[in-house]
Specification:
Structural class: mainly alpha
Largest sheet: none
Order of helices and strands: HHHHHH
Number of strands: 0
Number of helices: 6
Strand content: under 5%
Helix content: 55-70%
Shape: globular
């Protein structure tokens, strides 16, 4: 789960053209603190995970790699067509 979360954070950040420093600022973290999320060295607490989902306009389920669950209830996510 951590590896998938870290890769999705990076993918979404790049898609939205944010820097790691932008994300750290949005989340009121140090740059190093945010980088640890993308590197899979640390996992964000629930409150931060929700903030990240709000920034990218995705569900926490998507961030956590629960795609099979989302698909089972009829929800799909297309990063290319997500709102910026």
């Amino acid at each position: 789960m951590i590896k998938l979360l870290s890769s999705r954070l990076r993918m979404l950040r790049l898609h939205h053209k944010y820097t790691q420093q932008n994300m750290a600022d949005f989340l009121h973290l140090t740059l190093n603190g945010y980088q640890k999320y993308e590197q899979g060295e640390s996992t964000p607490p629930l409150e931060t995970l929700v903030k990240i989902a709000d920034i990218f306009n995705v569900s926490t389920d998507f961030l956590l790699g629960r795609d099979a669950y989302l698909q089972s209830i009829g929800i799909t996510f297309d990063i290319e067509n997500a709102e910026d």
